[in-house]
Specification:
The structure is a single chain. The protein has 349 residues and is of the alpha/beta class. It has 12 helices and 14 strands. It has 2 domains: 161 residues, NAD(P)-binding Rossmann-like Domain (Rossmann fold), CATH 3.40.50; 175 residues, Dihydrodipicolinate Reductase, domain 2 (2-Layer Sandwich). The chain has a 6-stranded parallel sheet, sandwiched between helices. A 6-stranded mixed sheet has the order 10-7-11-14-13-12. Helix 4 links the parallel strand 4 and strand 5. It is globular and about 60 Å long. The structure holds NADP nicotinamide-adenine-dinucleotide phosphate (NAP). The site of NADP nicotinamide-adenine-dinucleotide phosphate (NAP) has 31 residues, from helix 1, helix 4 and helix 12.
Length: 349
Amino acid sequence: MADRVKVAVLGATGLVGQVFVKLLSGHPFFEIAYLAASERSAGKRYVEAVNWVLGGDPPGEVADLTVGLVKPDAIPGDVELVFSALPSSVALDVEVGAARRGFTVVSNASPLRLEADVPLIIPEINWDHIRLLEVQRRRRGWRGAIVKNSNCTTAILTLSLKPLLDRFGLEEVFVSTMQAVSGAGYRGVPSVAIIDNIIPFIRNEEEKVMNESRKILGTLRGDHVEPASFRIYATCTRAPVINGHMETVYARLARSASIEDVLAAWEEFRGLEGLPTAPAKPVIVRREADRPQTRLDRDAGGGMSVSVGRYTLYSERLLRYIVLGHNLVRGAAGNTILIAEMMYREGLL
Ligand SMILES: NC(=O)c1ccc[n+]([C@@H]2O[C@H](COP(=O)([O-])OP(=O)(O)OC[C@H]3O[C@@H](n4cnc5c(N)ncnc54)[C@H](OP(=O)(O)O)[C@@H]3O)[C@@H](O)[C@H]2O)c1
């Protein structure tokens, strides 16, 4: 595994950061060269700084790395790619600083996701939007670049909607979610608030789902993305599961379909070939009456596939289904690494 691209992970001790570390361990294209977190963690060995939640121990190749500070100047010069899993409150300044210094940043944090010159990418859906990087470099004069991963709920939803949009068109979408506690980060939801409870509010989440979905499913027109024109309404709730977001979707199609047409659209949706993190099937259809289920299906395709089931056509154009996906993998670190793998393959790093 000679000549791997050296990468940094910012926010490496958090929940998304840990999944980055796990997925990047032994990666054929990328090698972790720098891990950074808050001042609470900086200066400690990774294995001492992290509250490792993924089972077993942190990978041996990073266990003894000293955690650095989350500062653009602290990132070693031989790093080519920066993965950001920083809280949104600190991400903007750090990511822009890193892009100015010449680093390519692929980020999970929400700032800039809706900026016209910032690609917001789910590789199987809208890889062509990466061309916004040319606009970004021209407008902002950065030597590096910023590419964004979407909100976790949005990533799972849009993968299930894309085959429907392409084949039948969409007029409107209503989505209601049951989201895992890990979606809020390591210190996110106190256990006394969520055990034996459903919380019907997640700050800013519904707006993110509505705005980001239309950008991801939109069309690249020269120097901007024209958002998809369907109407979308979201209700987001927090449920007492650790990982895995479940979403109930009602989609009004633009053209009539039979349930066989709908299943064919999902089953024929193709994955990306030849990339380590790309699942063979981004969308898996569960035909059992009681699937998908959080515990049984969140790890499908290594956490990179979403599972759809409970589908019913109430008329030829009104479809109901449930989609489930892993918020930390497809909804965060896994999708971000897949973006980076595409950039590597296309010589964009
Ligand atoms: N969780 C998900 O499902 C998900 C999905 C999509 C996107 N995201 C986004 O991904 C990002 C990370 O989420 P997460 O769930 O991994 O959060 P998290 O578990 O709270 O982790 C936050 C990370 O950032 C570091 N950090 C916190 N405050 C900092 C500061 N002031 N300066 C420098 N570093 C700081 C923490 O370091 P210490 O350990 O030292 O405190 C930790 O490494 C967020 O922007 C989130 O919105 C999360």
